[in-house]
Specification:
Elements: E1 10-14, E2 18-23, E3 30-37, E4 40-41, E5 44-45, E6 51-54, E7 59-64, E8 68-73, E9 78-82, H1 87-109, E10 121-125, H2 132-145, E11 151-154, E12 167-172, E13 189-192, H3 202-221, H4 224-229, E14 231-234, H5 241-253, E15 258-262, H6 265-275, E16 282-286, H7 297-313, E17 322-327, E18 332-336, E19 360-363, E20 373-377, E21 390-400, E22 405-410, E23 420-422
Parallel strand pairs: 10-14, 10-15, 11-14, 15-16, 18-23
Antiparallel strand pairs: 1-8, 2-7, 2-9, 3-6, 3-8, 4-5, 4-7, 11-12, 12-13, 17-22, 18-19, 20-21, 20-23, 21-22
Helix pairs in contact: 1-2, 3-5
The structure holds adenosine-5'-triphosphate (ATP).
Length: 431
């Protein structure tokens, strides 16, 4: 059975403030070209000339403020225009944030204190598929277009957009986010939690948020420019129970002063009430876009897998990872907490097992590790692992118990930068 014949290149005209919503199939890319006018994809302008290749599986909107003519080449799973978008509301929000950044910069120039010279710390919250990552992207790209270098903080361990899932990370955004390559990866600050959901060990998730916030705070105190530009923080779509508690924790930990709530009145009201005693936090309700594509849990699991694959093979499948072998004795693998406390039977009579959720457990290398991802810690000693960020990841492809050798792939050649590795529950199977 051959693929359906690709449709011929076609033109599409956008009226002012209209967007074309497109879903690219999993096995082909779509080329888009601006013929006339101006248009942007999630805050980043299409170049005036030349084709842009939108990667397989992308779900995008090509939006025009003043009208545009586009040319599309390649198949799509769906393709329809809409004039009903919240873009004007979003860009107005951007304008308010921009004014706050300018105020912070002016205060810094006049020798103002850390409080006055702090730009907006925006946290975007809302249920799954409310368009949080997309709004973050637009706010960052619009700010970068004006010359700001805001810091993007991604707390979404399920569908993280900076590096692989299971991480919380941050990176400065110095220019509008590339339509094809996404968030730049030159210098991300990454903490490895190792699971796609926080419920496995919420205390460790909180510890890593705290470490990340502490590091950013330190960077901000020495850099007035990034301090004034502020942060845009992306969060998980889990907004009930523990998920809600972690959102409140994130607001506090990162000292967010603008909370943007997408598409849920109830969450907006709850957060507004929860922070009302703090005068310096604005909780703003924003309309969600009808263009946001719904993704079920199977789809999410699949994209998680793709994100891991992309890390090793590149977005366009254009990188060749390097395979390497280490002796078991050359590395030490640790697991952070995760309910591995001593069983009751191993304790003195009468003693209750105490679970220290952040306890470090040395793990033996076993064939169970095949297909899992291990992070390479920057820690020098095991007890620093919990407070250290990670250099990168390896994917275990084989474990030979007899010869005590572990085979892995890594995106770069050469020896591991550290012998301390962190185990995870993240897997990826070569199809
Ligand atoms: P989650 O909580 O699961 O991380 P989210 O709230 O961050 O989800 P997004 O990732 O921003 O949601 O959006 C979901 C999908 O919808 C993405 O693939 C995104 O590219 C797409 N999308 C967002 N807005 C539009 C739009 N206006 N038109 C077409 N697709 C869109």
């Amino acid at each position: 059975a051959g693929a359906a014949a690709a449709p011929p290149p076609r033109q599409s005209k956008l009226e002012p403030r209209e967007e074309l919503r497109v879903e690219v199939p999993p096995d082909a890319s779509l080329r888009v070209r601006l013929v006339a006018g101006t248009a942007e994809i999630f805050g980043t302008e299409l170049p005036p000339e030349g084709w842009v290749s939108i990667p397989p599986r992308s779900k995008i909107a090509i939006f025009s403020w003043h009208g545009a003519t586009l040319e599309l080449d390649g198949p799509t799973e769906s393709e329809y225009p809409s004039v009903e978008t919240p873009m004007v509301i979003y860009v107005n929000t951007h304008a308010i944030l921009d004014a706050r950044r300018a105020r912070a910069r002016a205060a810094a120039a006049q020798g103002g204190d850390l409080e006055a010279s702090q730009g907006p710390r925006v946290i975007v919250v809302g249920p799954t598929d409310s368009g949080k990552s997309t709004l973050c992207r637009m706010l960052l790209s619009w700010a970068a277009k004006l010359g700001w270098k805001p810091t993007y903080v991604d707390l979404d361990i399920g569908q993280g957009s900076i590096t692989i899932p299971g991480c919380i990370s941050a990176t400065p955004i110095e220019k509008p986010i590339d339509i094809v390559d996404g968030i730049p990866l030159e210098m991300p600050l990454v903490y490895f939690y190792g699971h796609p959901t926080p419920s496995i060990n919420p205390d460790v998730y909180k510890v890593f948020m705290k470490e990340l916030a502490k590091t950013l705070e330190r960077q901000f105190s020495g850099n007035a420019e990034s301090r004034a530009a502020g942060m845009v923080i992306n969060t998980m779509g889990w907004v009930e129970g523990l998920g809600y508690e972690l959102l409140l924790n994130a607001i506090e930990t990162f000292k967010a002063n603008v909370v943007l709530v997408l598409g849920q009145e109830k969450l907006w009201k709850m957060l507004k009430d929860a922070v009302q005693s703090k005068p310096n936090i604005d909780v703003v309700k924003l309309q969600k876009s009808e263009g946001v594509v719904l993704r079920n849990s199977k789809y999410r699991q699949k994209t998680r897998s793709f994100r891991i694959k992309e890390y090793f093979y590149g977005i366009a499948n254009d990188l060749a990872p390097h395979s390497n072998i280490v002796n078991f004795s050359d590395v030490s693998v640790y697991r952070i907490g995760g309910g591995h406390q001593a069983p009751r039977s191993a304790l003195p009579i009468g003693a209750e097992p105490v679970a220290d959720p952040t306890r470090l457990v040395a793990v033996n290398i076993s064939t169970d590790m095949i297909h899992t991802v291990l992070a390479i810690s920057y820690a020098k000693e095991p007890d620093e692992i919990i407070s250290s960020n990670v250099a990168g990841f390896i994917h275990v492809t084989d474990v030979d118990i007899q010869r005590k050798k572990l085979t892995y792939i890594a995106p770069c050649p050469g020896d591991l930068p550290s012998r301390l590795l962190i185990a995870s529950s993240l897997t990826w199977y070569e199809a």
